[in-house]
Amino acid sequence: MKLKKNLVAATMLAGSMTALSFLSAGAAQAQGALVMYCGVQEEWCRAMVTAFERETGIKVSMTRKSAGEVFAQVKAEAANPRADIWWGGTGDPHMQAAEEGLTVEYTSPRMSELQDWAVRQWEQSKKRTVGIYSGALGFGYNTELAKSNNAGELKCWADLLKPELKDEVQVADPNSSGTAYTLLASIVQIMGEDKGFEYLKALHKNVNQYTKSGAAPAKAMAQGETTAGIAFMHDIVTMVVDKAPVKVVAPCEGTGYEIGSMSIIKGAKNMESAQKFYDWALSADAQKLGAEAKSYQVPSNKSTPIPPQAPKMTDIKLINFDFAKYGSSEERKRLLSKWDNEVKNLPK
Amino acid sequence: MSRATLGWIVLGWVGFALLPWYGFDRTAVPTLTDYIIGGSALVHGLKGAWWLLPVLVPLLMSLRPAALPSRPDNSTWLIASGLTGLALIVLQGFTIGLNGWNLDILKVISGDNGPSQGGMGYGAALTSIAFLIVLCHGLAARGWCRGDAFVTSSIGIVVALIIVFVFFPVSTILASAFADNNGDFAPLEFVTKFMDRSIWGLDCLTSDLRCGVAWNTLFLGVLVAFGTTALGLAFALIATRTAFRYKKLLRVMSVLPIITPPFVIGLALILIFGRSGALSSVLWEWFGIPRSRWIYGLPGIFIAQLLAFTPIAFLVLIGVVQGISPTLEEASQTLRAKSWTTFLTVTLPLMRPGLANAFLLGFVESLADFGNPLVLGGNFEVLSTKIFFAVVGAQQDQGRAAVLSIILLAFTLGAFWLQHAWLGKKVYTTVTGKGDAGIPLPLPRRVALASYFTAIPWALFTVGVYAIILVGAFVRSMGRDYTPTLEHFLTAFRVEATERGFFFSGSAWDSFFATIKVAGISAPLTAAIGLLTAYLLTRQRFSGQRSFEFGTLLSFAIPGTVVGVSYILAFNVPPIEITGTGFVLVMCFVFRNMPVGVRSGIATLSQIDKSLDEASLTLGARSATTMRRVVLPLLRPAIVASLVYSFVRAMTAVSAVIFLVTAEYNMATTYIVGRVEAGEFGLAIAYSTVLIVVMLIAILAIQLAVGERRLGRRSASTSANPVAAPAIP
């Protein structure tokens, strides 16, 4: 009997010891804390955290995840929010969170310093999310492979339909990637829905793979796994800076863009710190950090210097992207299922 | 009324009257009085939390058998006390949440929001466990499981843990399969989602359209299960039955893939077979074979999963092959059977439990694998990635994810039943107390040759893959720029010597330490619970055994993403509020990896004759003693397997933890995934090599600590020493 008891007791003890050590380790200081979900590259996230901690003395706990993952987590945690602020990541999930009431309204004193597109995003979301950077959609091609394929120079969306590029274009699956959904919405807005879907069907013949992640085509181009790839231009620029033989293209027909956003989580436990961070993150000093961390998006504060490597927004023909319409979950579902049925299931 | 029962009754009181009933807010700093008495249920109850006071009733009930130990109806009192106690705690926990009543109807009745309470803490946990044990002791006193309180308590604990950490979270997410986007009940929506053509379509048979994702997954799973079982068997036979010179090396190499963080194998395969890969370039430049993308899709996933999961089959099979007693084979040869016939009709059938378990694990692993299809999938879709992107992708459709999870679950259960049917009721016992010659027979020539021909090329291939990985860590950018550099290691693991001692300034240190800590804690827990379960399943008979066994397998069958999301849904709100702690990571790993411990434990135990346990019991040892002195030493291969496996999986799992990591408990794999996403393959590979080295050291340490099982079998080379080591120390 004694042994049995010991065994059971030992198991229990081990269990509770782990519980104890972990629960107590989780205790953070009450004053000046901030829990942040970060949706951009690790390096940029860390730079933001360190700079903010240095500036304010508020201790930041940061977790980095992709925008979709953050949204899924914020939604799952809605009953008992863990995070205070959600900084970075493409605008769609931020808009959706605003639509579902997972984030709260906030008006920063810095709103007047921001570019129009950032303010528009904020107005469309009923003050629940604000633009912090933007990046235009585009494509790139591996110059070495393009030469061996005789694909010539590529300048427009239409060039991607060239027969020389059969099985040579890579783009993400819009069902899994916000980047590819931006492409879908942009093409529909540029060409109109019917013509747009004709284009996507024709493009389907040249697509070798619908990747899961939006930035994957940029990497595949750099590695020489595909000739052309559609992605956000700043993701392709990162590869160019890394000396890959890749050329970035701003399509001549015009293109859509994303607005990387920031929202305060509803029910945030450190509301004051969250607002402090919000104001700070909109300042030019904070937005400078992106370029230093090798992320070449265009910052939303007008006085932030635009990184020289960043694609010049003035050279890009940007369309008037309707974030409210194409960000709504109904329109999204409709377009995605239409794409699934009419494009993805087509034979090659 | 034993002293143990009394002890648990006391602990129940301690949990209620002394320890803090509620967990602490993470932002609060608790004082000493919060820990002792001040935060206890008794104090809370008297201060206005009236719903805690009824728990006193079962606690008082348990005192009656303690006060009057010799009454015949004591068992009834114990059972009643345990049951009422558990029921009351569960009831109050689920009806009163953080924001008042959890059921809207109660809000209507009471007219206000109702009282609120936080998540349960140590006190609640201890009292609940005490009630559970008291209940089990009462049942044992009633004569359940031959009156063995150890067995009933073990069953009770394992069942409770499975209910809390498997059934509860999983049912939370599966419930969403039947809900529409607003959370209302919508069974019709379930049917439409379930019957979708993208899941069940068979277009690929008749046209060049794609088949449904369910068929893809099933096909891949069967293929991988066959492949891993065959390769695992070849390795196991070579390692145990031949005089192959590089056995040790072969063993280490076959284990390498299992300790490789995800994405890395896929990445390496792309660097070899991809369109610009090393091999493709050679083939194109020397033989003019055009470059192609064949690696993206079924072939790529298949190769990567074979690489990744063969070690599991090997670990399961080696214990079984080792355990087969030569006696039966000798008998067969004495009866003039050729060695090939002996192998076919005696050895192979005796391996059946091992083969079936290896096959099952290969199949289930392939179904749940996430990293490889993500990197190499191309346009070949499988359920696990589909589920992940249904949750985090542009669709944000949790209901769809739940529907797909149900399909995945159904496949796993199907495999489970098939395995059971195939094994049937035959007996596979060969480790008995009787003596035998102890020298395993050499393999028949053609089996040996076949093993060599499958295992050695595969081992060489593995070496190639790892050479690529190793090179990748030390060059600037694999595939483009081969300048040697240590830059990746410095970025991740820089240590600076300051006047205050060493400062770990590398960006990977945080996640590295957290990973080691979580893996180090979860591995022994996993092995303990897994083997205990295996013991209960094979050595004890109780009603509901099948469903019990199924429950242990359940969390393994569900893809990590679903587990991750379900853990958030279930454990982010009271009564059990543990997200954001390291504890939730540990529990997630324990219950995801436990099935391997259970499986290898069952496979090994079904070989060990029950008469050994019975001899021990007859000699007066209790179940616990028998387990410690007889069963555990014989289980050493299974212990090593489950310890190694759970440690390694805790260090390499991605999809389940991606939702559970926090700033304090960031895991190495999520860090690596982030680097891969950012295109920093060099850093990702460098970090992975460090993890591989750490895991190798850990595996060696585990093997040293647990030791080898001594079965009284001698290998031909050591037969110079005729004294067989005793089977039982």
TrEMBL record, chain A:
GO terms for molecular function: polyamine binding; thiamine binding; thiamine pyrophosphate binding. Pfam families: SBP_bac_6. Residues 1-30 form the signal peptide. Keywords: Signal. GO terms for biological process: polyamine transport; thiamine transport. InterPro entries: Ferric-bd, Sperm_putr-bd. GO terms for cellular component: outer membrane-bounded periplasmic space. This is Iron(III) transport system substrate-binding protein.
From TrEMBL, chain B:
The keyword Methyltransferase does not apply. InterPro entries: MetI-like, MetI-like_sf. The chain crosses the membrane at residues 5-23, 35-57, 77-101, 121-145, 157-179, 218-240, 252-274, 294-321, 342-364, 401-418, 449-475, 512-538, 550-570, 576-594, 638-661, 681-706. One of its GO terms (cellular component) is plasma membrane. Its main location: membrane. It is found in: Cell membrane. Residues 214-419, 512-702 form the ABC transmembrane type-1 domain. It comes from the Bacteria. It is a multi-pass membrane protein. GO terms for biological process: transmembrane transport. Keywords: Cell membrane, Membrane, Transmembrane, Transmembrane helix, Transport. PANTHER family: FERRIC TRANSPORT SYSTEM PERMEASE PROTEIN FBPB 1-RELATED (PTHR30183:SF7), MOLYBDENUM TRANSPORT SYSTEM PERMEASE PROTEIN MODB (PTHR30183). Belongs to the binding-protein-dependent transport system permease family. This is Iron(III) transport system permease protein. It comes from Microvirga guangxiensis.
